[in-house]
Amino acid sequence: MYNFKFALAFFGLLALASCAHDWTTAKSVSMRPGKGGVVTLSPHEDPRARAKADAIMQRTCGNKKASITEEGEVVIGVSKRSQTDVNSNGSSGIRLSNNGLGFGSHSSETDTTERQVTEWRINYECK
Q: Is the pTM of this model over 0.70?
């Protein structure tokens, strides 16, 4: 019973801590001090992420004003996921495969999906 109460308290504190943590991010992708750069932020709808991006832009621009020239979602790569289903029909016979000897016959079917990986970027210049 003691272990259960301890585990419950531990996971309760962990859940509370994760709720309080700021999961928003903003980082500089490229910058030219005093001239401008590119910032990425996530999630882009969150005002806290936007505030972090604004702070990065202002640090880069110094006493100049950061002026946004372009903002939007940018494709930064491709993610591929493959799933292979192996079926056995249970018929007799010996087969030799990469995994050694086996009995019965097998077939496999592979399904591959691709999706674009995107992030929200802000291009800015210092004026």
A: no
